[in-house]
DNA sequence: TTGTGTTTTACGACCTCC
DNA sequence: GGAGGTCGTAAAACACAA
């Protein structure tokens, strides 16, 4: 791997609902895997796993950017906001101005402060198909090397701190430098897919989703390598080629796919906003992330399970109901452990 | 390089709700 | 009956130690 040219989407780590002060500064100058940082997950006294380490280090406690709030690609729910007094994606949508900046400068990442451009783009030809035609972009410019072994959940990333999503980059950011792209670099494809693709998604029924999911299951890791940065899996590659693997609904070729950092980032953002995704939000995310609604539903289910598991580890098995203690805006939804029935508009 | 442990997708079973 | 919930689990993907 060409280590002076690789750009990557922000690392996706587990969402934390810790108080803001729990976000710890990260002092390593390395962008390599967590073992090469000055402080590894094992060194965090409260951490019991890699993912927990990330929770303490870098995940924002309030919703920051969310693709569905992008002004140039507004996806509006047609339902009233939940009655919860806490902000949710719906309630935040109308007021949130948090989004990434438009930038015509070369996009780079600070290897010191772990700022990664959300959607890095070559300075020469920003892809016009990006959502908002460039509304997403790096917040600042620095030199970058992305380690070949870096893993999404293990990269401490202050980039996720809310301040890095606001309109003014922190003054402490280091001076810009040019970024180099591999010749093979491919800009992220548009979130707004072709009409054909979108109509396909819209027409999906729940049963059809399974079919789509199976088709996506043939998407191999090669397709989403960091070099390619392609968050949109190819579709319809194996029509009718579903084979019995272990269960009837898994392909022989691929047991599961790996979501791109971009997809995971958006899903995590949505999860921070609400542990239970509404149907309109699910539909919107399905379109924007090129995932089936079933995949998004299952992702949220798995994410809630992960949250419960982490909270169990952290607080003990008997404290699974103490998750409302966190004081962030989302604590009402309680790590996914509050019944979705509390949301009148859930369905 | 290999073995091991962890995390991530995806599913089935079973449940509740409408 | 269909939706989505949790729970448990399989297997791929991944990190890391030896």
UniProtKB/TrEMBL annotation:
CDD domains: homeodomain (cd00086). Residues 252-311 bind DNA. Residues 207-242, 307-347 are annotated as: Disordered. GO terms for molecular function: DNA-binding transcription factor activity, RNA polymerase II-specific; RNA polymerase II transcription regulatory region sequence-specific DNA binding. One of its GO terms (biological process) is anterior/posterior axis specification. PROSITE patterns: HOMEOBOX_1, HOMEOBOX_2. Residues 250-310 form the Homeobox domain. One of its GO terms (cellular component) is nucleus. It is found in: Nucleus. SMART domains: HOX. It comes from the Eukaryota. Pfam families: Homeodomain. Its main location: nucleus. Residues 317-328 have a biased composition (Polar residues). Belongs to the Caudal homeobox family. This is Homeobox domain-containing protein.
